[in-house]
């Protein structure tokens, strides 16, 4: 995937997470833009499966050689899966943020408010405006 790619099958948050909703489950990761800003990710502090989170709450922390960053919940729900591979290979978030670098899956408490998510075009505009 080209650097700066914004897949069209995902939705985005202003806090630079991507969200893929399938039924009542949302898979969450960080965008290519976010991983490039963080630089080399060296540790992913994954949440425990079963953790209940509120919309906008920090779910996990990413550590890079440059900084520490929170990753937020796009909606209320319960963590039902985490990408355990990231414990041994946190660099997967940098190499493949939309694939092997996914972070966690959330069983949604209810539908995600569509107004909380950006379309690919709106996310691209957000990134351009912050450049």
Task: Describe it.
By secondary structure, the chain is α+β, with helices and mostly antiparallel strands. It has one domain (14-109): RNA polymerase II/Efflux pump adaptor protein, barrel-sandwich hybrid domain (OB fold (Dihydrolipoamide Acetyltransferase, E2P), Beta Barrel). Helices cover 20% and strands 34% of the residues. The protein has four helices and nine strands, in the order E-E-E-H-E-E-E-E-E-H-H-E-H. The chain has helices at 32-38, 85-88, 92-95, 120-130, and strands at residues 11-12, 17-22, 25-30, 41-45, 52-53, 58-64, 68-72, 77-82, 104-108. The strands form two sheets. It has a six-stranded antiparallel sheet. The model has no long low-confidence stretch (mean pLDDT 94).
CATH architecture level-2 label: Beta Barrel
Extract low-pLDDT stretches: none
Distance between the amino and carboxyl termini = 21 Å
Q: Can you summarize the main beta sheet?
A: 6 strands, antiparallel
Strand content: 25-35%
SS element count, helices: 4
Number of strands: 9
- CATH topology label: OB fold (Dihydrolipoamide Acetyltransferase, E2P)
CATH H-level superfamily:
RNA polymerase II/Efflux pump adaptor protein, barrel-sandwich hybrid domain
The side-by-side strand order for the widest beta sheet comes to: 1-2-3-9-8-5
Number of domains: 1
Q: Structural class from helices and strands?
A: alpha+beta
Shape: globular
Mean pLDDT: 94
| CATH class descriptor name | Mainly Beta
């Amino acid at each position: 995937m080209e650097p700066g790619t914004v897949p069209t099958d995902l939705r985005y948050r202003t806090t630079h997470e991507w969200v893929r909703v399938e039924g009542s489950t949302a898979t969450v990761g960080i965008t290519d833009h976010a991983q490039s800003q963080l630089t080399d990710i060296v540790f992913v502090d994954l949440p425990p499966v079963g953790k209940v989170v509120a919309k906008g709450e920090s779910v996990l922390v990413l550590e890079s050689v440059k900084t520490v960053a929170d990753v937020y919940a796009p909606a209320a729900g319960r963590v039902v899966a985490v990408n355990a591979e990231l414990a041994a290979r946190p660099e997967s978030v940098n190499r493949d943020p939309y694939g092997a670098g996914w972070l966690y899956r959330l069983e949604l408490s209810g539908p995600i408010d569509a107004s909380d998510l950006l379309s690919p075009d709106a996310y691209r505009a957000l990134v351009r405006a912050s450049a």
